[in-house]
Every structure is written in C-alpha cells, then in structure tokens.
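seq/struct pair 1
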Amino acid sequence: MRRRVPLAVLALALLAAPARADAVDEAARALRDGRRSARDRVDAAHALAAAGASSARDRDRAVPRLVDALADPAGDVRAAAAGALARLEDPRAIPGLVARLGVETEETVLASVLLAVGETGSAGEVAAVGPFAGHASPRLRAAAGTALGVLGGEQARQRVLALLAKPGDDPDWAVRGAALLALARCGKPADAGTILVAYREGEGANRWFARAALAEAVAALDPDPVALLDRLVADEDARVSTTAAVGFVRAGRPEEVVRRLADARPAVRAAAVAAVSSTELRRALPQVREMAVRDPDRSVRWSAVLALSRLDDPAADPLLVEGVRSTDPQVWASAVAECRRKTGLEMGRDPGAWTDALASRRGEGVR
C-alpha cells in the first residue's frame, strides 16, 4: 500500500520551502480522496494555498483542484477551499465560486465563498454578490458588504449605502461595521455624512468595532478627518485608538502621528507608536528609539520596543533580550514570541542564546 504523508506535516513543509511537484500532487490527491478525514482534506487545501502563493506554476495546478473542492461533501473542506482561493486571488476561480453561490446551503461556507468572490473578482461580480446584501442572515449580509467593498465600482457603492441605511437585525454591529469598512474602500467623500448619521442612529459609540470602523472610514473619505480621529485616538480600547492613529497616516496626515508620540496621555502615545510600526513611518524612528528607553510609562516603552523590532531596527535587539529577562509574564512572553518570529528558533527564556541568535541573524559575531 502506498504510504500516505500526514497532511499537517505536508502543509508545514510547503510553507517552509519551495513546493516540490510530488508534494503538490500529494496535496491535490488528498484533497479529492474521500477516504481521507475532513481534517486531512482541510490541511490539503491549506497546503495547496501555500504552494500556489509561492509559485505561479504551482498556482496553475492548485486553483482547479481547489475549485473542484468547493463541491466536497464536508462543509469545513468547502470553506477551506474557498479561503484558499481567496488567498490566491486568481480570477480563474471566479466561475466556480460564482456557481457555488447559487447552490451552497451552509451559512458558514457561503460566507467564505462570498469573501472569496470579493478577493478574487472585479466589479463584474457585483451582480452575483449584491443580492446577498438583503439575505435574512446578518452574517451573510456582512460578508456580502465586505465583498462589495473589495469589488468596488459605483454599483457596489450603492449596494453598500443601501445596506448601511437598512441593516436589518444587527445586534453586534457586524452588518453596519462591514458597510463602513466597505465604504472606506469603495465610497466617496460625499458618503462621510451618511456614515456619521448611521453611526449615531445605530448607537455605534457603545461598540468598539463601530468606533474602529468609523475611524477607518473617516480617514479614507473625510477631507478633514483630524478632529474626529483626534477623539478616537484617545479611545480607551487600544483597537480603536490604534486604528485612529493609523488613520492619520492613511489620510495623508503623518505629522499628526509624530506629534502624538509626545502626547501627555500614555494610551495615545502607545497608539501612535503602533501606527509608526504598522505604516512603516520611519521618519519617526529616532523618537521611538528614545521612547523605548526613556518613556515614563513602562507599557509605552515596551510598545516602542516591539515597534522597533517589527521595523527591524537593530536598536530593538538588546531591548528584546532585556524583555526576555523580565519578571512580567506579558513582557517576557511577547519578547520570546518576537525573537522566535525574527529568527525561526526556539530558545525559551535563555537571554544569552537569544543574544547570539539575533546577532547571527544580522551577520554579527556571537559571544
């Protein structure tokens, strides 16, 4: 009997190195092998996505196999296949994805297919996605709104505006939030007022997701978003304050982020530091280096260290090692995780080993 390669191992192999033809073929066979467990077939879909993302030749082979898997008997496998196709963003998958919209009955899978159509298609697919903006399920309305925002175009914009005006049952603000984020991508400046009305009428101020979605939409659409972003960057929820800080950069106002690195409020400084990292605002690096060692707030200092590391600034390396030595579990755990991410190694809480590993990574001598 032919020995079967465990699909979890295969997926990791494909992520770690260029995909070999036999590994891709093995994943494709496993995906269509009904004798395999659903978990194995899900792993196979992930493996094909990893292969296709790293090689055009492997993507040519992976896409038709993943499209076929949209008809798998197991919903988890169909959802994984849709997610893999979304990752590959290959327009050759569109006919199969659109066809699946007409026959899929499982809500979770249908949401995945809608999102995949959004990531993979263009304005021509708005007609296929649009009707789902009126679906009875809030989850599917939210998925349709997200997909429409990515597909773009005036028809998509009008659908999303209608969804925002009449979101239906939306207890978690998922539908309106998706509409706000969609308009950040496909909306026009004239939509900023409509967004604010929907936010107020829906009592969005009571939900962090609504506040974060508002920050992103206003940054994208409002010609003068500073006043509103200034309020949101002081939000008590870091997910909101960081989104608002990033919004300054996306709105073409990076100087507002630099200015808030010196704000009197620690939470605002931390949000600004996170924005420097996520938007690669390298002109602010001298300030962030200073904050990493001198900011009066310990959490801001550590946020600055992580920001420097994510920008791969050499000044972060010794500070990460100091973090490994910390007695604060959150600090040393995040320090070890960041060292692991940068080096691909496992050294536990050994500061000396991490010092050598980080130095070796930069081509420096070790102790």
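seq/struct pair 2
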Amino acid sequence: MKWRVKVNLDAFQHDPGVAPDGTIYIPNKFGQTQAINPATGATRWIVPFGGDSQSISVGADGTVYVAGGGAGAIGGTDAIS
C-alpha cells in the first residue's frame, strides 16, 4: 500500500473520478468534492460542489464534472476547471 486517506464519507456508492494526471476526485458527505494527490495521498483542494451519492467524471482535458447537490447547487451539473 502506497498511502491511505481519511475522508468524510461513510462508504462509496460509485467510483471516484480520476484525471489524466492521476489526481483522484472523491465526494464527501458534506456536498463537497475533494482532490487527492496520487503520489502522496494529500488533499490538494476541496470545493463546495458535488455530493455524497453522485458520480464524478473527468474529461480528457482534465475538467471535473460533478452532479449538482452540494451547498449552493441547484440540480443540474456543475463543472470544476
């Protein structure tokens, strides 16, 4: 095992998003999306978009797509550039 990361989520109901550079994007139960450094397991950033039961997709250009449901989201899809 290379590293572990503790997140504010009881269980994953879907796969996390993975960017072309290896960054791992996971939701947490507070309606946020967290970016994890693939080399160290450290949190790169957390944004108030997404949700605990929504899938995260990453485009070929690295754009992260999360379904609305986080704080301030009103349905639909949010994009994080």
